[in-house]
Amino acid sequence: MMKKNSRLFMAFLCCILFISMMMAILIGSVGITPTIILEVLFYKLGIITEVSATNSQQIIIWEIRAPRVLLAAIVGAALAISGAAVQALVKNSIADPYILGVSSGASVGATSVILLGTFSAFGVYALSVAAFLGSIVAVTFVFLLARVNGRTSVMRLLLSGIAISMIFSAITNFILMMSNEQGGIQSVMHWMLGSLAGAKWSNIIIPFLVLIIAFLLLTNRYRQLNALLLGEETATTMGVNVDRFRIYLILIVSLLTGVVVAVSGTIGFVGLIVPHIVRILVGSNYKVVLPFSAVIGSIFIVWADMGARVAIAPEEMPIGIITALCGGPFFIWMLRRQRYTFGEGD
């Protein structure tokens, strides 16, 4: 795709993302007009000094809906660029961020908080802290198991990820089986399927900062990511220290995914399908794959969260069900397209 067309397409997608976020703030049990939304947002940002919206409308828009929509965009972008990086890391088109054991480790942490009351000293942040620590512990085990004689192979990394995921999933299931708290079990299951209901301005800042830093670090190494798609030997001949670069990617992806999972639960399919969609649209050059993945991932999760809120209203459906129902059929259709390839490095 020509650079000019790529920029125009990115501008178009950013417009779609903005409209999607506005619609997401608009939808809810309390009817609010777009004018009121813009008025409240401008007022809270200090652009205007007076507002005609009522206090309840300001609370609904600024304290409830806006942080939730923004968190949806952050989660979508983070999972999408993590998926793109992991697929280059293992050179496997069916890889996603959770293949490193992130979700299973986070599930153990979250389950221990909800059912066993651990990390209670952290108060309202106990769930996020425990999920993040659980994901980091799992990824550390995966990395240590995959590293033999100072080297980390792709095959060992994949197999270690599968093994650790199974072990941590078994621990989660054991805790669930031993618990008699039906309410707690339902809370765990709801968290494991993903939810953005706990979004607040206070728990958005860290994921946002980590997303920006991870995006810049990955974008700065797009040439090495392109080289990995061509194979380990080719990347080495191009001057890439493959083993060191893999450690670099694992650390970034683990941190980014762990922070996101801590605030949203495990939301599948985003890191798997979005990079594929992007490659179909703009090719496999990671200079454009990463920014396009971030924007399309944000759009996908914003719409998925809208679907989760309205599907069985006034109840809320776990967002992971929405992403699976939408992403699964689309992924199957995409795989049937004959012209789709992976790792062209164009």
Describe this structure in words.
With 346 residues, the protein is mostly helical. It is 73% helix and 1% strand. It is built from 14 helices and two strands. It has helices spanning 3-26, 34-44, 55-90, 102-116, 126-146, 154-178, 182-192, 205-220, 222-229, 232-237, 242-264, 270-282, 286-310, 319-335; strands at 147-148, 151-152. The chain has a two-stranded antiparallel ribbon with strand order 1-2. A hairpin with a 2-residue loop joins β1 and β2.
Secondary structure layout:
Blueprint: H1 3-26, H2 34-44, H3 55-90, H4 102-116, H5 126-146, E1 147-148, E2 151-152, H6 154-178, H7 182-192, H8 205-220, H9 222-229, H10 232-237, H11 242-264, H12 270-282, H13 286-310, H14 319-335
Antiparallel strand pairs: 1-2
Helical residue percent band: over 70%
Distance between the termini: 10 Å
One letter per element, helices H and strands E, the order comes to: HHHHHEEHHHHHHHHH
Major sheet: 2 strands, antiparallel
Q: Give me the secondary-structure category.
A: mainly alpha
The low-confidence parts are none
Over all CA atoms, what is the radius of gyration?
21 Å
Total number of strands: 2
> Globular, elongated, flat, extended or rod-shaped: what is the shape?
globular
Number of helices: 14
Strand order of the largest sheet: 1-2
The overall average pLDDT, rounded, is 85
Determine the strand fraction and express it as a percent band.
under 5%
Keywords:
mainly alpha; 2 strands; two-stranded antiparallel ribbon; globular; 73% helix; 346 residues
